[in-house]
Design goal:
two-stranded antiparallel ribbon, 8 helices, alpha/beta, 8 strands, six-stranded parallel beta sheet
Length: about 250
C-alpha cells in the first residue's frame, strides 16, 4: 500500500515538475482537463532580431518564436493559439516576420495586449484572427526610427520608407483602421517628446478599429473556443457535402 501511495505521489510530483518546466521553457502548458487544447505564446519585453541585446534586457527572440509557430501549426493536438503581448517593440524586420507568420496560420489565433503593444508590437497585435486589449493597456504608433550612423543616406531613407509602407499595409489589411488614419496617428506631433507619433489606450484602439474588442483573459479564451468549435462544425459539414465520413 505504501509503495502504491509513494508511486502516486511521485507521479504527481513529476507531472507538476513537467508543467513547471514547460512554463519556464515555452511559457505555456496544456492542462489535461481543458475543454480544448490551447497553446499560449508570450511576446514580452523587446523583440530581438539580428542583433543580440544586453543580457539585462527582457527579450523575445525571433529564432525561438518562428520554430514554435511552425510546430504549433503542424501539431494536430493544438486546436488554438493565444498570443499574449506586453512589448516595447524591437527589431522591425523580425517583428514583422513573426506577424506575417501568425497571419498566415490556419490554426485559430487570438491576441491579447496587456501592459503595452508598442511600435512593432502593433502589427503583432493585429496579426491574429481576433484581437483583444485590456482597458489599461497602451499602444504607441510611430514611424520607423533610424538609430546610429547612417551610410548612403538616400538609399537608407528609401529602405525605411518601404519598410514603413509594409507596416502600414500589414496593419490596415489585418484591422479595420484605414491607411489614412493610421498615418495620421503615426505622424501626429505633441504626444511624444522629440518624436512624432501617438500613444493610444485600449478603448481608443478599439474605437479607432485597430483592435477588435476590449476584454481580458476569459474573453480571449471564450472567443478562441467559439472559433475552434465553429471551425470544427464547418469541417464536418464540408466533409459530408464531399461524401467524406467524419471521424
Amino acid at each position: 500500500m505504501c509503495s502504491q501511495e509513494n508511486e502516486n505521489e511521485q507521479c504527481q510530483s513529476d507531472s507538476v515538475q513537467e508543467e513547471e518546466q514547460q512554463i519556464i521553457e515555452l511559457g505555456s502548458v496544456l492542462p489535461a482537463n481543458a475543454k480544448h487544447n490551447i497553446h499560449c505564446l508570450n511576446i514580452i519585453g523587446q523583440v530581438e532580431g539580428h542583433y543580440i541585446l544586453p543580457p539585462q534586457n527582457k527579450t523575445t527572440k525571433y529564432e525561438h518564436i518562428i520554430p514554435a509557430l511552425v510546430a504549433i501549426e503542424q501539431d494536430r493536438t493544438v486546436e488554438g493559439l493565444v498570443i499574449i503581448l506586453n512589448t516595447v517593440g524591437g527589431d522591425v524586420e523580425a517583428g514583422l516576420a513573426i506577424a506575417e507568420l501568425i497571419a498566415s496560420m490556419k490554426t485559430p489565433t487570438v491576441s491579447l495586449v496587456v501592459g503595452g503593444g508598442h511600435s512593432i508590437g502593433v502589427p503583432l497585435a493585429v496579426s491574429a484572427k481576433r484581437s483583444f486589449i485590456v482597458p489599461s493597456a497602451t499602444m504607441t504608433i510611430h514611424p520607423v526610427r533610424m538609430n546610429g550612423t547612417v551610410l548612403g543616406v538616400p538609399q537608407t531613407l528609401s529602405y525605411f520608407e518601404k519598410m514603413q509602407d509594409r507596416i502600414v499595409r500589414f496593419v490596415c489589411s489585418n484591422s479595420k483602421m484605414s491607411a489614412h488614419r493610421f498615418k495620421q496617428l503615426m505622424l501626429a506631433n505633441g504626444q511624444l517628446v522629440n518624436d512624432v507619433g501617438s500613444v493610444i489606450d485600449g478603448e481608443t484602439a478599439v474605437r479607432e478599429g485597430l483592435i477588435d474588442r476590449l476584454g481580458g483573459l476569459s474573453d480571449v479564451i471564450q472567443c478562441l473556443y467559439d472559433m475552434i468549435e465553429n471551425t470544427s462544425e464547418k469541417e464536418v459539414i464540408s466533409g459530408v457535402l464531399h461524401g467524406d465520413r467524419p471521424l
